Amino acid sequence: LFRTTETSRLLFPNPDASNYHANTNRLFEFLGLVIGKAIFESIVVEPCFAPFFLAKLLGRHNTYYDLQSLDPSLFANLQRLKIYDGNVADLCCSFVASTSDGREVPLLAGGERMSVTNENRFRYIYLLADYKLNEELKAGSSAFRSGFHKLIDERWIRMFDEDELQQVISGSQSCNIDVDDLQKHTHHPTCSGPKDKLIVDFFAALRAMTPKQHVQLLRFVTSCSRTPLLGFGNLIP
User: Fold this and answer.
1) Burial (Cβ within 10 Å: 0-12, 13-18, ≥19) of residue 85
2) Residue 58 and residue 66: Cα distance in Å, rounded?
3) For the chain, what is the radius of gyration of the CA atoms?
4) Do 237 and 222 contact (CB within 8 A), yes or no?
5) What's the pTM?
6) How far is 100 from 116, CA to CA, in rounded Å?
7) In angstroms, how far is the first alpha carbon of the chain from the final one?
8) Which residues on adjacent β-strands are paired with residue 115?
9) What are the tens digits of pLDDT across the range 31-66?
C-alpha cells in the first residue's frame, strides 16, 4: 500500500496500490482511522511518513521544491532543465508524465502533442511537479485523510508543520531516553516497590546501556522505538 522515499525511507501512499490490492481506498481510509485513533488515545506508533504526505493531512498543497524528497533524481533533472542553455526542443520532451507501469499521462489537454521548448519549460516543470506530488497521490492521500479526520479535526492540528505532526504521531525523534523519567513512571505490580532489588538492578543495567540499546528495549516493550512528546507519564504501550 505504501512506498518509501529514496533517501530517508519515509512512507507515502503507493499510487499503484490498486494493482496489488482490492478496495485500496477503503484500506487507506482504515489506516488513516488507525493513525487518528492512536493520536486521539495518545499512543505513539512506529510509522514515519514523508513530509509531502503529512502536508496533505494538514490540508496543504505541495509545491515544486517538495519534489526533492519524493524523487531526487527527477528533481535534479528538472533543475538542470531550468538552466539548460541549449535548445530545449532538441531534448524531445512533451507535456506528459511517465508512470511506474510505463504509461504516459498528459499534463494538460493535448499534452502528448505539445513539445517542451525554451519558452514553456517552466510551465512543464511545475505541471510535472504538481502531477507527481498532488495528482498522482490524490486517491490514496484523500482516502487516508478521510479516515484520519473522522477522529482528528483538521482545526486541531492546523498549528503544526509536517515535522511536528510526525512527532505527534510517533513521538520524539531523539535517541536519548530519559531513564529517570522512565523510572519515575514505571509501575511494579509484581514487585515490592521501587526499592526492590530486581527493580534497582534493572535500572542500573538500563543506565549502563547505549542509546541504541535503549531504543531497542523501548521498541521491544512498547512496539515503538520513540518516547511520547510529553514523556513517559503519557506513554500508553
Assistant:
1) exposed
2) 15
3) 23
4) yes
5) 0.78
6) 21
7) 26
8) 94
9) 999 999 988 888 888 889 999 999 999 999 999 999
